[in-house]
Amino acid sequence: MTRRWHRPSWFALLLFAAGLALFLALARWQWARAEEKEVLLAAYAASATAPTQSLSPSTDALPAEVLPRVRVNGRYRTDRGYWLVDQVRDGRNGRYAIGVFTPNGEAADLLVNLGWVASPAGVTLPAFPSLPADDRILEGIYAPPPGGGLRMGGDALPRQKSWPKETIFLDQAAIAADLGSALRPRLLLLDAESGSPLRREWTPAIIPPSRHRGYAFQWLSFAVAAVVIFVVLHWRKDQKGHRT
């Protein structure tokens, strides 16, 4: 018997083309995600040694991948605050304390991430940090608000009557409406403070680029396997007495 190419059916050809296109698209997507994560991690690494600059309108116009270290003078709104809940760090569930800060001479308030604290189920929730009422100079990384959280059930903030309020995502527009004031488009990731019970490690807890590249190679291997299977199925020995 000799091997020869057997023309595939239209269905087999379409199924092969669709599967191959899907596997290659997923591989490209995972590779692009790895590059995005590398840019993000590099931005946080660069911010650690960046010189501090005054918060100004020009810092609001910076590209999202640029994370400047800024200094701002003003006062906390001590009667306002938010818990950003369901935030996992090192496999533990917790929450970020988000303060509201009014910079001197500015019309827009600034959200300040005060840090993370564990809040496992069944354990008494931590108290919101006590904020000073006098003028303060704050320093930290000026970063876009984090994503995350399923936005189901509408805006829950107006239904909460006591402070601090809880939210599973930071929607700047919703929080501005809740506060009744304008907000800066980013928030301040406050510098670490000795003795603070709140954890201030700002490198994002994300899937590392290496894992995304592993997923990309996995999808690419599926594409290669699809090609091999397609060829094996259609480059085969003729059955005795069978013609194509």
TrEMBL record:
InterPro entries to which the protein is assigned, alphabetical: Surf1/Shy1 (IPR002994)
Residues spanning the membrane: 216-235
Pfam families the UniProt entry points to: SURF1
Domain of life: Bacteria
Ligase among keywords: no
Location within or outside the cell: Cell membrane
Membrane-related topology note: Multi-pass membrane protein
Keywords noted in UniProt: Cell membrane, Membrane, Transmembrane, Transmembrane helix
CDD domains: SURF1
Record family assignment: Belongs to the SURF1 family.
Protein name per the record: SURF1-like protein
